[in-house]
Amino acid sequence: MGMIIAALGSGLVFGLGLVISGMTQPSKVLGFLDVFGNWDPTLAIVMACALLVTAPGFALLRRRDASILGVALDWPTRRTIDPLLIGGAALFGIGWGLVGLCPGPALANLAGLSPKIFGFVVAMAIGAWGQDVLLGVRGSQPQPT
Amino acid sequence: MTSFDPISAALGGLLIGTGALLLMLFNGRIAGVSGIFADALDPQRTGRAWRVAFIIGLVAAPLLIAATGRGVPVADMPAWTVVIAGGLFVGFGTRLAAGCTSGHGVCGIARLSPRSLVATAVFMVSAAIVVAVSRHLLGAL
After folding, report:
1. Pick the residue with more confidence: B137 or A94?
2. Which of B16, B45, B51, B111 qualifies as a cystine partner to A50, CB 3.0-4.6 A?
3. Which residues of chain B make contact with A87, given a CB cutoff of 8 A?
């Protein structure tokens, strides 16, 4: 139960950040990606300020053996840069550039009950499922305990 | 161009980082939304409940802000064909790359993970090329 409440709270804080920063608006994201147009630096500031918290925060958490709720800290361990990583990132970028939505803002936008957002999220689920079927789960998140 | 508000951007960024930090502090997990989403939909996974809870938190955020009188923001979306194609690319690509803007961008760069640094650079350049082509070569979508 603790894990569920903590995840709910984490998602809420994360989502508030997305909305307040304007990152749930595709126009802001596309404005950042439009380097040959009227460039909007918002996304760079958002990411820098997020890293201002996660970089020192994760460095401190590295010293812990377990989380507050007593589960092991599940740090990613893979180090290899392979064609699948690069190809996947390039494909993701195509979709991101087409619509201006990545997974976090897409899910937060479900609150607006817009049919196109639901369509985008369903397509995202089909895309992820298709990848798993074609290539197998890549194990980005280690198997949960 | 939409109005540029550096204070909101900074505050929002700090909150995003805090949300990611909380998930590691309590649940011991990286806040990678693409992975959380895909794994929440996988019936063979254990630990789906906390993943669904995280997503509910994400969806609740705009509603909470709407309750303060700002209204639920409505995303401006392109034509249906572009929406569906974009969703398929995002879903497939983030799964293949094992992460998106949150997992690789916010969490991975914080850990100075070489994979995340490369992935973030690649998806940003790829997206910028798509925007450059669609807006400046083909005209506005």
Report:
1. A94
2. B16
3. 96-97
